[in-house]
Amino acid sequence: MTKNFHSQKGLTLIEVLISIVLLGIILTTFMGFFTQSSLFSKKNEEKLGTMQTAQMYINLVEDNVSKSNIDITKVTTLNKLQLDAIIKPIDPIVTPYTITAVIKTKASDVNIPDNLIQFKITVKDPNTNSKSETYTYLMK
Q1: pTM of the predicted structure, to 2 decimals
Q2: Is the residue at 80 inside a domain?
Q3: Is the distance from CB of 99 to CB of 77 less than 8 angstroms?
Q4: In this model, does residue 29 exceed pLDDT 80?
Q5: Domain containing 79 — which CATH number?
Q6: What is the number of structural domains in the chain?
Q7: Which of 63, 102, 111, 129 is most buried, by CB atoms within 10 Å?
Q8: How sure is the predictor about 6, in pLDDT bands with cuts at 50, 70 and 90?
Q9: Which residue segment(s) compose the domain that 125 sits in?
């Protein structure tokens, strides 16, 4: 039952250092991937915020354009205050975005049918320059 301890093999210092360097290279590569993924996710979140705001305004305009006393066909460009006057929200809509809307009717574009109004809303985030443009048609 005696063991021969003179023939033990182990890792040399050079082998340990090489394995640490290789592990460091692999981990650095993965960290770069996660950093890029985080930046991509943040940019998409900003874009999604502008898209959701644009869709919210379109839904409110569609619901309230027939109820408002403003003739929407006489206006060509609206800012956020004018849009809020049309939709008359119960609670004021607080948003950090710059919102503009452009309205086109048959007089300005021959491809639009007589009973429809083309409504384009642009929502821009002034901090990140993320911008969303959404188009829809409204019934006159």
Answers
A1: 0.67
A2: yes
A3: no
A4: yes
A5: 3.30.1300
A6: 1
A7: 102
A8: low
A9: 50-139
